[in-house]
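In response to the reviewer comment on reproducibility (Comment 2.3), we provide here a single inverse folding case reported in full, input and output, so that an independent group could reproduce the run without further information from us. The structure tokens appear first.
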């Protein structure tokens, strides 16, 4: 059963939300954040990427940079740019992209649920990235940015969400840059709060969709605080961290594609080698998009090819073996191109499908890369099957879009 609770969100007054809200910390670098925050002292980047308040080139992991985050977070509250709600609420956060809207519930997720596997992961995390976010949570004593969960579809929750979203939203704006819509409602009626808590309690599991490092960091800091508190009861605010939970059927996973710098010493032999395990069809110069599971598209020397994995080269009964990332990693990247470790090999790079397949063509045509491989996107069912069986997806398998906007609501740990 999944334990959640409402919380007293800290959030911007309605008229300031567009100035405060920002993209998540990990989708842009320091220079881009500096540029986006230019002339806007109220931008959340001053809290989540506080290195922008120092000279260019300052190490973002310098202790004084973390301290600056906490100082700015306090200043935002002192100036009334962020204000705490009087009572504990749940919230609805909706995102609209390409005419499709997904509705998430903002809740306090339970730290022990992360530790004991009720909150399920499908990716490995890197200790250095966890450590960075842990420092950020500790110094601010808050989850400044939410994590992104999926939950099994639930008609009762759909009805509650619909009741609130048929009213006028608290926030409603189109974000600059990506053009996605962001809307936000406060769920403040006690009977609805109780019903939401109860509906989650009946769920066997929640699934991390995006934000494995943030989830790990938030949970680890919560567990740390529990250990440090001699009078720990189990109901303290630090036992919870902020998550936006979406019904699985509303989420879309976008393809996550690969580009490789060289053919590992092969030239015309490369396609011959590929045809051992794949049916190869030349498609010409028009962009070719994978049509189904186990169909790939390859771009090489100005031409697109369709590759279809031959029967017997994969195992559809194995939750990892069924994945196209596994098939392409084993039979093309490793076997032919000699790329063993996707995390560390400098010959490979990854391109989120939001950029389109033209981006793959561009990077190969420029000479920077030699070959591109596009994959059919993973489904939510595949993701949940993997998490349910305790398996871990290969690196760079899923790309969720739109990303959660940061700064609509913040969760304090005390």
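Designed residues, in position order:
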């Amino acid at each position: 059963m999944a334990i959640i609770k409402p919380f007293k969100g800290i959030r911007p007054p309605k008229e300031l939300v567009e100035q405060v809200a920002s993209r998540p910390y990990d989708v842009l670098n320091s220079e881009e954040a500096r540029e986006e925050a230019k002339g806007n002292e109220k931008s959340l980047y001053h809290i989540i990427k506080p290195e922008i308040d120092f000279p260019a080139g300052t190490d973002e992991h310098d202790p004084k940079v973390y301290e600056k985050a906490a100082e700015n977070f306090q200043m935002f509250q002192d100036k009334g740019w962020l204000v705490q709600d009087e009572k504990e609420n749940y919230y609805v956060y909706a995102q609209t992209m390409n005419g499709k809207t997904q509705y998430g519930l903002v809740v306090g997720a339970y730290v022990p649920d992360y530790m004991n596997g009720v909150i399920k992961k499908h990716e490995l995390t890197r200790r250095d990235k966890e450590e960075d976010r842990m420092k950020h949570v500790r110094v601010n004593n808050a989850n400044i940015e939410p994590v992104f969960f999926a939950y099994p579809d639930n008609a009762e929750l759909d009805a509650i969400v619909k009741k609130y979203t048929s009213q006028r939203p608290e926030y409603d704006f189109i974000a600059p840059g990506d053009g996605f819509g962001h809307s936000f409602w406060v769920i403040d009626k006690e009977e609805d709060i109780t019903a939401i808590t109860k509906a989650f309690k009946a769920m066997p599991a929640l699934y991390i969709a995006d934000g494995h490092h943030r989830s790990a960091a938030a949970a680890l800091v919560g567990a740390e605080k529990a250990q440090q508190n001699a009078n720990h009861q189990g109901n303290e605010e630090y036992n919870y961290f902020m998550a936006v939970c979406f019904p699985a059927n509303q989420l879309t996973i976008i393809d996550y594609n690969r580009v490789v710098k060289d053919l590992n010493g092969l030239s015309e032999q490369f396609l011959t080698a590929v045809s051992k395990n794949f049916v190869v069809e030349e498609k010409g110069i028009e962009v070719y998009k994978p049509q189904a599971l186990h169909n790939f598209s390859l771009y090489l020397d100005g031409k697109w090819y369709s590759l279809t994995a031959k029967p017997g080269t994969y195992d559809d009964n194995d939750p990892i073996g069924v994945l196209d990332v596994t098939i392409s990693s084993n039979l093309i990247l490793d076997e032919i191109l000699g790329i063993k470790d996707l995390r560390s090999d400098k010959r490979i790079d990854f391109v989120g499908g939001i950029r389109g397949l033209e981006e793959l063509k561009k990077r190969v045509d420029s000479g920077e890369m030699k070959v591109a491989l596009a994959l059919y996107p993973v489904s939510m069912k595949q993701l949940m099957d993997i998490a349910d069986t305790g398996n871990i997806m290969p690196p760079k398998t899923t790309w969720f879009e739109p990303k959660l906007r940061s700064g609509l609501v913040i969760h304090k740990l005390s």
